[in-house]
Amino acid sequence: MATGTPSVSAPVIPFTGWNRLESRPRQQQFDQVLEARIYDPLWMLGRQWQMGEFTGKDAGSGILAKVQLDYMQISGIAKYTQPPVAYTQDDLPMEPIVESINYSFSIKERVLLAKKWYFFLKKDVAPSLVNTYISLFDSSPATLEIDTTPPIATSSDLDTLNGAQIFSNTNLVNFLAAISISGITLDGAILYSILNDPAWNTNLGSLFGTSLPAGSGTDLLTAVSDFVAWVKSTYTLPDVSQENWYPDDLEYKFDAYWPVDTSNQLKLTAQNYHQGHFDWSAFEQDINTFPIASSAAKVTKAIQLMVGQTGFPGMPCSRWWEFENGAVNFCNLDGNPTDMAKIIMTQFALLYQDDWFVLPYTVPVGSYAEVLGIVVTDVFGVNTFVANYPVNNYSYTTGFSEDNDWKSWRWLDISKADTLSSNADPINTHSPAGSFPLLPVVNNIQESDPIESVLFIRDEVSDMVWGIEKIVPDNLGKGWDGYQRSKLYGDYLMQLRGSLPESPNPPDPNAKISFELISTTIPENWIPFIPIHLPLTNRYTHFQRGAMPRILDKYANSLIRPVTSILNYGLTGTTYTPYYIHEEKIPRAGAILETYFKRTRWYNGQTVLWVGRKKITGRGEGASGLTYDKVIDI
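and the corresponding structure tokens:
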């Protein structure tokens, strides 16, 4: 065996042992152990005194409760600051009514609507009149106005630019070829807009230059009614005057109304909704400037309920033989001395776990409920009245009610608008404190892939905002990559006419620099927004939509216009209306605005489909590389 001097750096680990000090019964019977006898009652009394248990009240546990509550059923939904329109939650949830935008049907959908119209004609109308009605409604203005003739090199610039919108899309060209074979020439969307008018039959003379043929009767009315009902059941389309989307804010704004009595209504308003799902927290109580009478009355109802104790994961057990949930460790909560909210909530959860009770009171969907009071009966038969927290304390000294509002716990409370707090309006005497709206909304909504997507970024180098059309409609009911569309569009134009030969006057080889007036090339799916001052101000600004010039060889210069409905507000035909976006709506991080098909099923089993928008946070600032008047070093 080798010997030597041990290394100094080697650690010497002492042996450590532990002994568990615990009770260990030596008998086979566990009667005395389960009795949990106390052998030192004085120590136990001291611990109770130290923990403050002697200062508590010997109160009984609640067993019964009688609750009095009043609630109102929602009566109307309105465009922001506009008169309300009657609404019943049994028909539709709130989302399709609030979110639906005026959707522009694609070419494919227009053809499908026409085919559905032919179906109802053949189903409801006598066979001898089917062809007569088809030829009548196929005439102008319901004709499918699509030029299926591709432009040629000698076509005008306007015809070439318009034709390239269709013929640069190969899938759309193939679909139009199939339409020409089927012989469908009717625009179903235009037909729906005509037949949706209750006076459509009296306007046939001005629309079509003719009148209904002899023998027309209830069969045609049935076909029209079935067609209009089918379109409305398939697409939840809003009234043009009731669309709640505000393009200058990139958000929804709307009001909801509940009847307070037979003469007035309570108004809740939502002004910054863009998340795709809303609940009570999106509202605040506002001044009702439309005190419209309602036939619905406020319902007051009192019921007696069993008191049920509630719990939460990790809640301390009130019985010593219970095992607590080890998955939750309250001791591991990190709280700074200034983090008062976390400290208070932790203390409340640990010390008052026996004071959490649930009263299962059921209220109808779409109701605005307020708890008026609760009477709790404990196991000793003592009744305790629990008032609604905004109730003021009565002062026996002064004889007046003292303001107790500052003590209110307002976690799940609807705030008041600034205009309401400074306005003594008798219509709004119904306080939102202690009230809760159970909105007729759905939790699960199926969303399609985006059919439109626009990325707003701030370009500090160019001192502007860009609206980048990442996804644009493909006229077949789906979305299309915006970069691919703009490239194919430009390639089609260049292929149609070719490009000019190189300049016959090349630059002087002795020249040191070259000066160019034109700007750098920006993709056509980048739409500029220029900051301008608000009227009559020299400090506040907003963004106005601009247009980049399209400069192509053998073409006259034209302006690049947006393709998505998100950015083309005010661009209809030859008319142009300026489009502005408030500066604060596009933060430094940018914003992404997308359009979806949305689908859900309501509690009555009805399937609802609509088109809505949603805004999310962008990906930060960007740079387009836009420059003018370039000096190039040759």
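(Above: one complete record from the training split.) The longest strand covers residues 62-73.
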